[in-house]
Amino acid sequence: MNQKTILIKKGTLVDHQTVMEDAAVLVRGETIAAVGNLEDAEADQTVDAEGLLVLPGAIDPHVHFNETNKGQNGVHDYLTGGRAAAFGGTTTIVDFADQIHGKPLLAVLDVKKGQARGQAVIDWNVHPIINQVTPEVLEEIPEVVAAGLPTIKCFMTFRSLTGESAVNMYSGRPGRIISDEDYIELTSRLKKAGGMLMVHAEDSTIIDKIAMEKLAAGQTRAIDHARCRPAAAEASAVRRIVGVARETGCPVYIVHLSSIDGLHEVTAAQAGGLPVWAETCPHFLIFTDDKLKRDDGYKWLGSPPLRDEETQAALWEGLSDGRISVAATDDCAFSLASKVAGAENFELCPEGMPGIEPRLTILYSEGVAKGRITLPKLVDLTSTAPARLFGMAPKKGSMAPGADADIVLFDPAARWTMSQETLHMASDYTSYEGVEVIGKVAKVFSRGELIVDGEDFLATPGRGRFVPCKLA
Hints:
Number of helices: 13
Largest sheet: 9 strands, mixed
Strand content: 15-25%
Helix content: 25-40%
Structural class: alpha/beta
């Protein structure tokens, strides 16, 4: 059967190492057939990319679809969240799924396949979340990794499954935290099976003490939530989990790194040759805790919290020099009414913010355009490194021949203002309201199929595929 061919020409091709002017990409069916000058190439369809950057489709390894937090249901699912991701240049996501007590750990994949069926518009995988380490769970680790889910997440904070920290710490309900002894057992099995541990690194002992004091004093607004979660709590947790990595040799990935102190611990671990990686998120790079002091500070409430400008500068430096490997979004979108429910009490406010769409533009506008990172670094942070670390390469994360034809055409000259009207996320507010940026996604191809063309969304719900992962 003849496969459709597409020639994307005259663009500036960017990979994680180089920038190639006036180059072309030939797509055959779902894969990339050739890259380079390609003057003599012919195709069924030609796309003129003059004046545009041609980038590999972005991979977001940290999103929360179909999320429930503090009794509130999120608004991003595999259709609405995937649509917003695509408009932002993301062609593959990795979701999270909580361990289902009483069922095999691999049951989380069945849950996510059910949610994605008839809905997913881009490709996906899932990280299982373990909150109870039992002998049965430990025995299941090799099977889970072999099924294409090699990255498992655990928490060092949140004593209840619904996300509250202090209120329910003595309720007797099972919580998210597992013990350091359990981490040793889990990472030993995970290392042997070829997996990697992802960690929400905040020390609950530090946090809960402050939180109980804040609650007793009636200090329960968004800024008080942030003050319960100091940089020292992140640094302490990173230090502890690095000790586990040192003991077992299991690769460890720190999610949403937010502080200078935490970055120092990651830097020390890497300098010691340990397999420790970290990500940070766009909201830490452009917002400070001044947002949390506002009456509507709940719009920016999340864990870990926003910090200060000095921290932002350090995180940008970490991204530039490679100590921070990935820029992910931690997208966790709720309705405004859900967030308002916790306006006066942070224990009732669902954590997180809608952020799956702005990532590529924020990193270009605040990073590349301001000289903080290079174009190849942008590609590495959003595509190549996630593909490598999470076992999607070589099919994802590059434009090498044989890779999936996940391609983004990006206009580096477009100036616009982010708002509820100009973004495509499903929440009825945006934390990015009024942010002026340069750079905008123009077209998106997913496995050779044009799914975003300007403001037109062309993907058919259900076309997105599960992508089994295998770590190198």
